[in-house]
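An instance follows:
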Amino acid sequence: MKSSMDRAAGSSGDAASDWFRLAFGDLYPLLYPHRDDDAAADEVEQLVAWLGLRGPTIRIADLACGAARHTAALRRRGLCAIGLDLSGELLARARERCDRGALVRGDLRCLPFRAAFDVALSLFTSFGYFDDAENEIALSEMARVLAPTGFLVIDHIHVPALRRTLIPQDTRRGPECRIDQRREIAGSRVRKTIDVHWDSGEQVRLCEDVRLYAPEEMARLLERTGLRRVSFHGSYAGGPLTDASARMIVVARRG
């Protein structure tokens, strides 16, 4: 019998809706080697300085934390950070960085937390994996777990930059494999197909499918979940969002 978490992960009823269960597993470090501890430490340093996060009483939820690069960097700075992810494979890697008690397995659409966090983080495009209805459920859950004065930070795709820099197809070598990637923008979603061809002859196909949001659409969605004072920025240091910004950093406060 499936657990409630497994049922939630497959609730939309087709294989494509579960793409993240396959994509965010043991192959993730192979596909995204540039997402390392040094980069996470630099991003956390910028966030902490910009948002004024300091002291062991600050409670932070790093949602869809993956291998907990940011969770670990936050904890090294003396902050009380908890990482949550659905992937058992990535959480196993996360335990190499964090104490087991700092990590929780769970689904964004049904967070196993009460309203206790001063900050909730959704970093590196870890929002937008589902259909519109379930994305709103996930966002409502992020808002629900915030303390009365808490705030949410979302690091998401900036559509103008994506349209300008999207590479439709590329190929590169990995350790004992060739990696072919194809990308397309289809309506309000960006999709990537990844084929890993191992030198042994084995082949693996992974897919990624993420909802794109313009700032005004994201603001309306956040306000429906009860979050207010929504602001948009172009860097982890809080710089302005412009067409040249590679990322869209969203901050929204409860109440």
